[in-house]
Amino acid sequence: MTTAAIIFILLWLVTFVAGQLLFKRAMDLSSAIGFRSRRTLAVLAAGILVMTISFCLNLGLLQRFDLSYLYPFQGSSIIIITLLAAIILKEKLTPRLMIGTLLITAGVVLVSMS
Amino acid sequence: MTNHRPSGFANPWFQFVLNVIGVVVYELLLKAGAAATADPAKSWSWFGINALASPLTWLAIAVIIVDLVIWLYILRYIPLSIAFPLSRTVDVLVPVSCWLVLRETISPLRWCGIALVIVGLVIVAKPAAELEERL
């Protein structure tokens, strides 16, 4: 794996995770202060922008690597998103949810290794 | 959770199933579109722009946009820390549908991975069910 590949895979991961967190924040805001509020729309727009960048990076990666090669990285996003949702968005994280999420992540990595 | 859960077509869990089907469809379309236009020799192709030359990619984008609207709707009702892990049902559905439809073989190790994901999904589904009771 080249340095460029590592950088682009990391960029893709970071933008993907950030996009999901922005989406959830936007929808929380929409429940709290309304969908048409300027703040809700700003966060949603930021989410869409970041997700679009992530999408293009994903296409570039798919042209170079098999989907199965990229899957472990996508798998790691599950645990990262769950942790950051708890830390940043103050969602309740039970040990049960944590164990389930870890198993899903491990399973996704195993699927792509074989 | 100020919203009470809508029923029928607007039920977030029904929309969740639609969303997962959408992800499976667009993942396959994207891979097909990207593969049809692959030209790794060009350095700017890291940004994936040339994949837009394939109509399959545009079809995938259309599915993604619909899927995004559904996803945002789901996030209004379900915490991200539950919705996102559960959305990885696709990691079971994609290989299994490749096995069923495309007659691809799945190695024993891969079956183990699929089994782990299913166990994890069942464990995460419990807090999701509890959330449902509170709604």
Shape of chain A: flat
Distance between the termini of chain B: 8 Å
| Count of beta strands of chain B | 0
Gross geometry of chain B: globular
Distance between the termini of chain A: 18 Å
Name the helix and strand elements of chain B from N-terminus to C-terminus, one letter apiece: HHHHH
Structural class of chain B: mainly alpha
Radius of gyration of chain A: 16 Å
Indicate how many domains the architecture of chain A comprises. 1
Order of secondary-structure elements of chain A = HHHH
Largest sheet of chain A: none
Describe the biggest sheet of chain B? none
Layout: helices, strands, pairs:
The complex is a heterodimer of chains A (about 110) and B (about 140).
Chain A: H1 3-33, H2 38-62, H3 67-88, H4 95-113
Chain B: H1 12-37, H2 55-77, H3 80-87, H4 90-101, H5 108-134
Helix pairs in contact in B: 1-2, 3-5
Can you offer a commentary on this structure?
The complex is a heterodimer of chains A (114) and B (135). Chain A is built from 4 helices and no strands. Chain A is an all-alpha fold. In chain A, α1 packs antiparallel against α2, α1 crosses α3 and α3 packs antiparallel against α4. The radius of gyration of chain A is 16 Å and the shape is flat. The model of chain A has no long low-confidence stretch (mean pLDDT 89). The mean pLDDT of chain B is 83. Chain B contains 5 helices and no strands. Chain B has one domain. Chain B has 135 residues and is an all-alpha fold. The longest helix of chain B is centred in the last third of the chain and has 27 residues. The radius of gyration of chain B is 18 Å and the shape is globular. In chain B, α1 runs antiparallel to α2 and α3 runs antiparallel to α5. Classes of the chains: A mainly alpha (114), B mainly alpha (135). Chains A and B meet through α1, α2, α3 and α4 of A and α1, α2, α3 and α5 of B.
Main features:
heterodimer; A: 114 residues; mainly alpha; 85% helix; B: 135 residues; 5 helices
